[in-house]
């Protein structure tokens, strides 16, 4: 079993509490079963790249 979440810090807290809860309920859940959403990671990288290229993109838009 695994859980896919974005990179928000509150999700780390959720996984920690879920892990503790699962121990108390004799439910098998490993905190290493938390997977970061790859699409979200790519989206963050593309947004950062676009921010860095903003000046060049504006120039191209002006020319077009």
Question: Can you give a write-up of this model?
Answer:
0% of the residues are buried. The chain has one domain (3-63). The chain is rod-shaped, with a radius of gyration of 19 Å. The protein has a two-stranded parallel sheet with strand order 1-2. α1 (9-24) links the parallel β1 (3-5) and β2 (34-36). The mean pLDDT is 83. The chain contains 3 helices and 2 strands. It is mainly alpha-helical and 64 residues long. The longest helix is centred in the N-terminal third of the chain and has 16 residues, at 9-24.
Short description:
By secondary structure, the chain is mainly alpha-helical. The chain has 3 helices and 2 strands, in the order E-H-E-H-H. It has one domain.
Q: Main sheet, how many strands, which sense, barrel?
A: 2 strands, parallel
Structural class: mainly alpha
Molecular shape: rod-shaped
How far is the N terminus from the C terminus? 50 Å
| Strand numbers in spatial order across the main sheet | 1-2
Uncertain residue segments: none
Q: Helical amount among residues, as a percent range?
A: 55-70%
**Fraction of residues in β-strands:** 5-15%
Task: Count the beta strands.
Answer: 2
The radius of gyration is: 19 Å
Number of helices: 3
Order of helices and strands: EHEHH
Number of domains: 1
Features:
9% strand, 64 residues, single chain, two-stranded parallel ribbon, mainly alpha
Write the layout of secondary structure elements.
Blueprint lengths: L2 E3 L3 H16 L9 E3 L1 H15 L1 H10 L1
Parallel strand pairs: 1-2
